[in-house]
Design a protein that fits this description.
Layout lengths: L2 H8 L3 H10 L1 H5 L4 E4 L4 E6 L4 E6 L3 E4 L9 E6 L3 E6 L3 E5 L2
Length: about 100
């Protein structure tokens, strides 16, 4: 991801991320390397837009929207099934570019 693009994404609020994903998800998906959630089975992550926990399958394809971590070390992450969740950085594995 370019530094200019990274700085732009780091300044967005959660609501702005939601609108960006809703309008043009391909713009986000085509911009960075492929990433997945580590492990197998299921995991629970915080959904900041709905203020609740959400269960997802490990191994799911994701895109990290911002490199800026919250106080708990979580990153704003877009799941390719249409969800935005906060995921600990250590749970995200970068598998490279396709």
């Amino acid at each position: 991801m370019s530094k200019k693009r990274e700085k732009f994404l780091d300044r967005l609020t959660l609501e702005e991320f939601k609108e960006l994903v809703k309008k043009n998800p391909q713009e986000i998906l085509n911009d960075g390397p492929c990433e997945i959630i580590s492990g197998s089975g299921t995991a629970w992550y915080y959904d900041p837009l709905n203020r609740s926990m959400a269960q997802v399958d490990r191994g799911s394809a994701v895109t990290t929207l911002s490199e800026k971590q919250d106080q708990k070390g979580r990153l704003i992450t877009y799941f390719h099934v249409g969800r935005i969740l906060l995921v600990p950085k250590e749970d995200i594995i970068e598998i490279g570019y396709n």
